[in-house]
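P.,

For your records, the input lines for the assembly:
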Amino acid sequence: MNDQPLRIRMTYAKLGNLRFIGHLDLQRLFERALRRTNLPLRYTQGFNPHLRLNLASALPLGFIGEAEQMDFWLDQEVSLEEISNRLCKSLPLELILKNLQVIDNQQPSLQASLLSSEYEVLLPADPDPQSLQDQISTLLTQAALPVQRRKKTVDMKNLILDWQLVKQAPQSLLKVSMKSTPAENGRPDELLELLGLDPADCQVTRTKLIFCEE
Amino acid sequence: MQTINVNLLEKILYHVEKPGRYVGGEHNQILKDWDSIRTHVCLVFPDIYDIGQPNLGLAILYDILNQQPDILAERAFAPWHDLEAQLRQNEIPIFSLESKHPIAQFDVIGFSLPYESLYTNALNVLDLAGIPLLSTERSAEHPLIIAGGQACYNPEPMADFIDAFVIGEGEEVILEVVRATEQLKQAGADRIALLQGLSRIPGVYVPSLYSVSYAQNGTISAFLPLESSVPAFVTKRIVAKLPPHPTRLIVPNIETVHDRLSIEIMRGCTRGCRFCHAGIVNRPVRERPVSEILQIIEDGLAATGYEEIGLLSLSSSDHTQILQLTKSVYEKFQNRKVFVSLPSLRIASFSVELMDELRDLRPGGGFTLAPEAASPRMQAIINKPLDNAIFEETVRTVFEHGWLSLKLYYMIGLPGETMEDVQAILDAGKRVLAIGRQIRGNRVRVHLSVGNFIPKPHTPFQWYPLNTTDELQAKLDLLKTGVHRTGLKLSYNIPGTTLLEAWLSRGDRRLGQVILRAWQLGAKFDAWGENDNLPFWHQAFSEIGLDPDFYAYRERALDEILPWDHIHTGVTKAFLRRDLEWSKLGKTRKDCREQCYACGILDSFGADRPISPLVYWGCP
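Structure tokens returned:
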């Protein structure tokens, strides 16, 4: 076995019906899509070997991902072009390959270096943009924004890094940047609920993952 | 044609559990252009996606239909309670996963009915589609509703709801039905003419073309076709040679009950166990050659990326080339990071050797054996004789070859069973556990999985009554008390669910009213939970004025016209009667590959038997 496997970072979009596929299911879906490529994939050692792959961050059910990232490893050198050709044939229609790059094996994992995520939320036609603008501003003047997650309470205020409301008729677009570390992970659907909106009425897209600079 | 409101669907999917069940879009799904296709078929498996999608029969029909350029086949499953409530509230009709068309817009709806507990779900699907439930209330504007699957060997309980049943193996007849429907509709046939036309296809049963009369005591006095052009009985269809196996199988996006590449290596079984419905109705035995199976695995893995292969049959170790198969699978796929499961192994050390051939390809976990009965007397009655020395040697081999966990399948409620016979199950379990502990120590786990016997149509036991709920409960109590502090694990079925399955599998067409009423009262997903639906069924029986015990607990006379007598499996009633006599005498039969007992299958289908030596039939 090659001791210096080829680490490939893949950027992909997750769209359409696949929005409704959860994180664990997505992982299994990737395993099978990669197996279909017949590339020299790296497996974990041991009695029950698993395909070695590493997804940057779980995308909540129902969200579109435009630039999600994942690492996988190969036991032999294969050109990115060849990998791309094979992956394009084996991925389901609504998982779209955006980019491939080779990554140094020494670099930390995607999860460990992920800092934040940028989201775009297409809001329903009402309430009107101005009142929404006021509502968000008022909300963020509060000392804390406690949100209930199962048994623990998190402060939403700590998780929001930046926000902006872009008015465009008939709907408005809320751009929000939130923390995405294992310890502190912001969820735009929770912000929507604080605003009295049903996330099901909004279309949430994660547009970018921000990692710490090496 | 209009699809459902997909935007609205996507909105409600936020509020249901596992929305991935309802969206389709899986790898290898076939999505054709609706408007440019002539005939639209919706294949409905009326259970949730997680259970229905892995069904191989569904995959086979999907493949056959979609190979036709002018036919499209899409899928629909029963929605779970949460989505159903949302669909009803938002007035969205049930839809196909591929194109999201309401299923009422298809030309043909084909229900897969492998087990009886899906009957109320099938009604619920029709209702969610806005299609009248009763066949007589439908007109030419509605889709043709057909059904097939193992439960349809007694189609009578569903006769009011299904226009035409396909009896037996669907691979050839499905296209005949679809093509005939196209031609008849084009020729301007009305609904009656369409059904009459379909009834002329061998293997197709149109229940509305028959009349049933009942005697004073409730049994059937006559079952007759309404006109001379309609056949008096319908013989099942078979394929003489197993057709090419689908390999571009749909890979589910969410986890399902059997998440693997399933391959049918053999159809039918020659063992002749007297309780076994599948063993009778799937005769004759037909095998797939090893070379073909290896190619299917190769192509299937390439097309799906699955990490597990299931080699399926009713009795895997009886495949004539099974040792060569397991050796070749190991040689060919050992470096592919796949697991192979080989269920339904006979009790013999040979079976353990077979699993050994697969070495590191076999899935982790336990070994499973199915003695079904523990006492020699019961074993003779059911024609599954088991030499105790062979049993213990097999068990010993299982533990010696590395397994730590062994699951044993047994049945209770068998004809003539006494408490001593039930006690024998406990004794066997304890012996097996002792053997295991002697070899592998205290880590060994032995699991007794006990099912309740239901006398099934078309079997030698079809005349027997079901054990009453009290009888079954007493036997279960004995087992539950008996395993206490032994270290044995016990799992069992609730007698109420068994009762429901017995009514529905042994009923006549009057049960249609009961099914309809039970569904109206709220019965669906009848195999789920602690049979919460049972009160609905009792109420339905009482309102309709039928006695449930008549169907479950009555010993039927040997000369009685049984509700399913007009459905012929190829095995004659005379053979079943003879086998029942042998059972009462404690006489066993050999594997019928060694000796033909003239069950009738060769009289019915022998003429179709291929001459090629490459096509193996189990009959001598």
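Two observations worth noting. Residues 515 and 587 of chain B are 39 Å apart (CA to CA). The first strand of chain B starts at residue 39 and ends at 45.

Regards
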